[in-house]
Specification:
2 copies of one chain form a homodimer.
Chain A (H helix, E strand, L loop, with lengths): L3 E2 L8 H6 L5 E3 L1 H6 L3 H6 L3 H5 L5 E3 L3 H6 L4 E3 L4 E4 L6 E4 L1 H11 L3 E3 L11 H21 L6 E6 L5 H14 L3 E4 L8 H11 L9 E4 L4 H9 L4 E3 L2 H7 L2 E4 L2 E4 L19 H5 L2 H9 L3 H27 L3 H13 L1
Parallel strand pairs in A: 1-2, 2-3, 3-7, 7-8, 8-9, 9-10, 10-11
Antiparallel strand pairs in A: 4-5, 5-6, 12-13
Chain lengths: 336, 336
């Protein structure tokens, strides 16, 4: 479960992430390209050394942030033209530059630059954006200068089964180290998200890692793992922590709720995280109401512990051939 | 060196403060009275338990925040009337309530409610505010319901030697567990600050702890210790950390300075703190420029390590009877 980062997972140190059991983190190419710049990070020995994280790093291609953050963008055959959300400067992100940046960062897993397709979108728009994603993926393959970093391609195809399936086959033909299912969790109904995974996941041979990008809630993770997904990335555990939404085995709680004002219990009596072992809901509510920086930290530690623990439990259940039972128990606890 | 807090030293956990060597922290009566409320904290077992800090806590009386934060205030014989900076609600802080709150919090050291005198102020105003502070100190003594908490009085007297000296004698007559020199660091010239300490400190017998409130820079601490001061509290190490001003043995650095962009060295090569052992100036500058929460933490850890270390060094130098030499070395390093 990579945890997103612009060379820092917000309130936490790399050492804390390691202690929480994180085995891989995600570095944002868009952010690091704009600030402090990939050439600076390369000169300082790469992102691992720069941020003092010595386990794998996956870098995204920057395409999604160009789509979601930049104030102006234009997609051309050559690449994406966009304005920085920091200073308005104009930039051109080509597939070749996306690879150059990710290699400079020293990524263990790089992602191909893809085009982001909004939801809803018509069939013609989806087809043409998906075809462009294929040509960009091919250029990414060509742009690699070494095999030190793995390269994953991103399946697009909007919400059209046929386009997704065709695209999956096309990318498999080109040959990558792993495959991501992209363009999901963009506002479509949940059944549609699951349908898009269900129709494309089985086409990818089991020895490839399959990565669903930008997903999701604990329930989403369980359902996606049930469909054979291996990897996820999502802001949900960390962003929601900062907003005071805390995940537990029985559902989530909103810490600012007045009923927690004098609650001496931990967030989740079944949780073994640092926050639950040391602080009461009453104290966490106070920190949140007072907007103390410690609030972000303690909440983030809890939510990451929960998410990383959920993934560990699912891995174990699969290894011990009892995933079906695990899934039933997972929902039973939440209903009570 | 108490470190100020509204039940959290901003970016750090109590466990980290302990690891840094902090032996006492300061809880703000004004903040905790308004939010979450002293009765709630009492019901939850006191401030130590609430925030999970098991070493001594000093609480201020709330008087200074009434003076500096509240949107309306009026000082009467009975106490201070003020409006909350949070919701504008009207409150009345009497000496008796200040003690009630501090006892409810479970302070190890309580401070008497005092009146804050602006700088500059005329002799008549200073005399009358100082006399009121004496009467309030007397009422604080009467208001104590147990001897579980020590009670310190605060010497006022503005910038008038005679008024300060008279006030010191007056408070010594009343009899407290320790004495603070207050109303300093309010905009007066440095020589005046030192003169006010110099004229009143020697009047207090050596077996009482002497505490200068709201001071100061590393140089200030060295000079005050040279004059026989034992305790300080100040936002400087933590607030300046959050603003990117980092203290070192050779002076301070401003981390956002462009010359640190590719600087692989630590903040201070002679520093053994977690931040200096693990992160470069280049990375710390990046975190600061990107306004990452981790920036506040790593900078705060460094500055507190520096301040607490400085106090430890001074204690040792005094014990080994070489403070004069220590002080010379301290300034020699900073000049280079």
């Amino acid at each position: 479960m990579p945890v997103g980062t612009q060379a820092s997972v917000k309130a936490l140190t790399p050492g804390e992430l390691y202690t929480l059991g994180a085995e891989i983190i995600l570095g944002n190419t868009y952010h690091l390209y704009l600030r402090p710049g990939h050439n600076l990070i390369r000169a300082l020995g790469g992102l691992h050394r720069f941020m003092n994280w010595h386990l794998p790093i996956l870098t995204d291609s920057g395409g999604f942030q160009v789509y979601s953050l930049s104030s102006f963008r234009k997609i051309e055959e050559e690449g994406a033209i966009f304005r920085s959300h920091i200073d308005g400067s104009l930039h051109h992100l080509s597939p070749e530059l996306a690879i150059e940046i990710q290699e400079a960062l020293g990524a263990d897993i790089m992602m191909c630059l893809d085009t982001c397709i909004p939801y809803p979108a018509g069939l013609e728009q989806v087809r043409s954006a998906t075809d462009l994603t294929t040509r960009w993926a091919q250029r990414c393959l060509m742009a690699r200068t070494s095999d030190k970093s793995l390269l994953f391609a991103i399946v697009q195809g909007g919400m059209y089964r046929q386009v997704r399936q065709d695209h999956t086959y096309r990318l498999l033909e080109l040959g990558f180290d792993g495959y991501a299912l992209g363009g999901l969790s963009v506002g479509e109904p949940k059944e549609m998200l699951f349908e898009m995974i269900e129709c494309s996941r089985p086409l990818i041979p089991d020895y490839f890692p399959v990565y669903v990008m930008g997903v999701g809630t604990p329930e989403d993770l369980v359902e996606c793992v049930a469909m054979g997904v291996d990897m996820f990335d999502c802001v949900m555990p960390t962003r929601n922590a900062r907003n005071g939404m805390l995940f537990t085995s029985f559902g989530h709680i909103v810490i600012k709720n007045a009923r927690f004002a004098d609650d001496e219990g931990p967030i989740d009596p079944e949780c073994g995280c640092y926050t639950c072992r040391n602080y009461s809901r009453a104290y966490l509510r106070h920190l949140f109401m007072a907007r103390e920086l410690l609030s972000y930290r303690l909440n983030t530690i809890h939510n990451l512990y929960y998410y990383l623990g959920l993934m560990t439990e699912m891995r174990r259940a699969i290894e011990e051939d009892r995933f079906h039972r695990f899934r039933k128990d997972f929902y039973r606890k939440r209903i009570k």
